[in-house]
Amino acid sequence: MQTTAPYYSDSNFTIFKVPYWRAYFYKFLSVQLWGGLPNKLQKKISCWYTKFYQKPISKHIIKPYLRINYQDENYLEKFKPPFGKATFDTFQDFFTREFKELPKQSHKYAWPCEGLLCEEAQIEQMGLANIKGELRSVETVFGLKEGDIPKDYNFTNVFLHNKNYHRIHAPVTGTIRRIQHIPGDLVVLRPWIYKQNPSLPAFRNERYTIDLADTTGKIWHLSVIGGPAVGTIALHGNVKVGKTVSIMDELALFYLGSTCCMASPYPPSLHTKNTFVEVGMPY
Fold first, then answer.
1. How far apart are CA 271 and CA 278, in angstroms?
2. Pair type for strands 258-264 and 207-214
3. Residue 79 in 3-state DSSP?
4. Do the bridges between strand 167-169 and strand 174-182 make them parallel or antiparallel, or are there none, so unpaired?
5. Where are the domains of the chain?
6. Which residue among 36, 76, 160, 281 is buried most deeply as judged by most CB within 10 Å?
7. Which secondary structure element, helix H or strand E, spans residue 88, and what is its range?
8. What's the pLDDT tens digit per position in 24-65?
9. Dist. CA 189–CA 200, nearest whole Å
10. What distance in Å separates the CA atoms of residue 93 and residue 53, rounded to the nearest whole number?
11. What whole-number distance in Å separates Cα of residue 96 and Cα of residue 81?
């Protein structure tokens, strides 16, 4: 009898195996208990929780956090404090770190974020999600109705762990066609507790959707999704409808916890489900 629930359905993927009882328990805490609270209360608790990371004392977490989570002793050398600061004064400064130099790339399409590619499939292969007793299509993630995105488009969901870089960049050069804020919950994002539906939080959590029309006129749909302890999803000042952005331009950043979903005209060229992607890698 199987006693563990592998993250998603790949039997070769063992990093996030958890006992079935624990997966069900975590899902209950996230969806039924925490998810049952009013949205305003979720946000109020999340904002309270994040205040500690904005205090100067929280900067003392950075060094031990680096030792625990990164094998590269010089990991932080390629980043700088955010917003023109000279030093990392708080843990939040570390979390919203900026690249000193953006990764160099010469390809047409790039990954917009860093994290675990926890779901990847053609739109027509995606099933419906049962959210609070209502069936929703994948277009719901992007604030659209079923059929608004071509069925041959590809859906990807990248989970950003707390240790990952938390800024979202343009995957392609193009023009911003739509920006939509979608209110919602802040249920736990960690995909391995949702078994066969790792994208469940993307259907119900608060998020911003950004549509980009590339130079050929094809639309790239991005959704930046918040979770518990997310104080803010902040769009870059240049992110406005009608603005032209270049590949790798910054679009948004998270203040703790996040997921980035994308519906694109093409499938990933090098990556498959349950692999790690980084900002600037060829899409």
1. 11
2. unpaired
3. strand
4. unpaired
5. 15-273
6. 160
7. none
8. 666 666 667 766 777 777 677 777 777 888 899 999 999 999
9. 8
10. 9
11. 8
